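Notebook entry, cofactor series.
This is the third protein in the set we're modelling with a bound small molecule. For this one the ligand is 6-O-phosphono-beta-D-glucopyranose. I'm keeping the input format identical across the series so the outputs can be compared line by line later. Sequence and SMILES below, as received.
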Amino acid sequence: MSDAHDQPRALYPTGLISFNGQPAVHLRSPNGAQATILLHGAHVVSWIPAGHEEQLYLSPETKYGDSAAVRGGVPVIFPQFNQQGPLPKHGFARNRAWQVQEAQVRGEHAFAVLTLSDDEATRAIWPHAFTLEMTVSVDDRRLEMELAVLNTGETTIEFQAALHTYLGCGDVRHAQLEGLLDQNYHDAVLDQPRQQWIDVVTIAQEIDRIYWNAPKELTLRETGRRLLIQSHAFDDVVVWNPGPEKCAALPDMPDDDWLQMLCVEAAQIGDRVRLAGGQEWAAMQTLVIAD
Ligand SMILES: O=P(O)(O)OC[C@H]1O[C@@H](O)[C@H](O)[C@@H](O)[C@@H]1O
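Returned structure with ligand:
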């Protein structure tokens, strides 16, 4: 296993690496797209589209290890969103070691499949049988992330899920998120329902919103960059940035780094998924560099 800091990651082929001391899968497609996924949480920590720079935010002060949730990248949220239930915040999937099932190049894309199944520790807090399958694929200027949930038990399970994507920004105050005109949302800062009256969301302070039944394509626009954020089978979208005060209070993020990120999360929150024994649910978030 080679360490991602020994040489430029661009030189790594698809396979297992160590990323900041953590076991990870590195993807490199023949057309030069790259991604890195930690086994801890099946957490995508880096996406570099072909011919472009890093697109995800990853906190330089994030903690790694058994009980840590990585700050940045794409945390997998399951089976509970935020504190909307009795489980630890955002559930347990982001804090567990996943298994790599495959990591390979096929045609023009490189992909990996990671899985997580119930064990004694998960059953102690969530008494259900399940297998999660996270498939991450890169090709040219596209990153696809699919989360599948299989109910491997006999009784119905109910859950929320999200791909909590931290998009990197040059300066979030100059970024625009487009595509949410007329959408109803829950404003978690005000704890009130609201409706979006203008198409463009701009960020100058804390924002924490759940858009219900949101459009399936949004655009993040910054100078010289147009990033499409597409989702499939996730009903909701969360837009989150801690803003200056909350960011300064986060122990795992530099005080000013709220300027460098915007979370646009593909999520299933309002209508919890109910899955009978033996059934499967799958949903996807895709990021595409348009310009
Ligand atoms: O600090 P955490 O547990 O990773 O959560 C970060 C944020 O995640 C977002 O999804 C929530 O809407 C916010 O309310 C929350 O603060």
